[in-house]
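F.,

This is the one I mentioned.
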């Protein structure tokens, strides 16, 4: 049985490095890493149950990242998500495509063509997490993974569609205040 390590504010999964249009930088291995999520030109709220995680060398994000009505910042990537806890099926879709993850069977299927993919969803913090590369490739989105120059052990996972205005370097620079604010909110949420 495969196992994965759920991240907490003080632990990270450290078992490899994924691929992203070439190669990702080495995966961080410190026990105090923070993973921020950006969607196009906005930074999502930072909580322990919204942080991306590593599993078998692949970065996973909560499925809620992909749906503007669920991601907490209302930014659309052109996708909708539906998760049925009873059947343990998660569906991501737009007007042309539909990707269904069966968490019970560990499968991922293009519901329109019937093609089955090797990717699977995993559960963490009580919600499904999806392999970022799989979803982005299927729905023609892009993503990046960058170390933040102004937060030691801080990393940004950015998911983008054609609405993203800034390149990653410019975005990281311009989002510094917002990322700092998200970090402060997160730190305060950990204090009793």
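My design for it:
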């Amino acid at each position: 049985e495969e196992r994965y390590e759920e991240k907490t504010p003080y632990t990270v999964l450290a078992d490899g490095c994924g691929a992203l249009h070439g190669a990702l930088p080495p995966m961080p291995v410190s026990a105090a890493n923070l993973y921020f999520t950006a969607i196009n030109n906005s930074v999502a709220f930072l909580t322990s149950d919204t942080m991306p995680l590593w599993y078998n060398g692949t970065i996973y994000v909560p499925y809620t990242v992909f749906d503007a009505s669920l991601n907490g910042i209302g930014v659309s990537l052109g996708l909708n998500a539906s998760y049925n806890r009873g059947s343990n099926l998660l569906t991501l879709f737009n007007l042309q495509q539909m990707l269904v993850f069966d968490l019970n069977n560990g499968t991922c299927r293009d519901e329109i063509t019937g093609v089955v993919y090797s990717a699977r969803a995993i559960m963490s913090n009580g919600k499904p997490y999806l392999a970022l590369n799989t979803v982005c490739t299927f729905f023609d989105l892009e993503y990046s993974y960058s170390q933040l120059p102004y937060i030691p052990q801080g990393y940004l996972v950015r998911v983008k569609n054609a609405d993203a205005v800034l390149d990653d370097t410019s975005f990281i620079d311009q989002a510094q205040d917002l990322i700092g604010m998200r970090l402060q909110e997160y730190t305060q949420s950990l204090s009793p």
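The two ends are 37 Å apart (CA to CA).

Talk soon.
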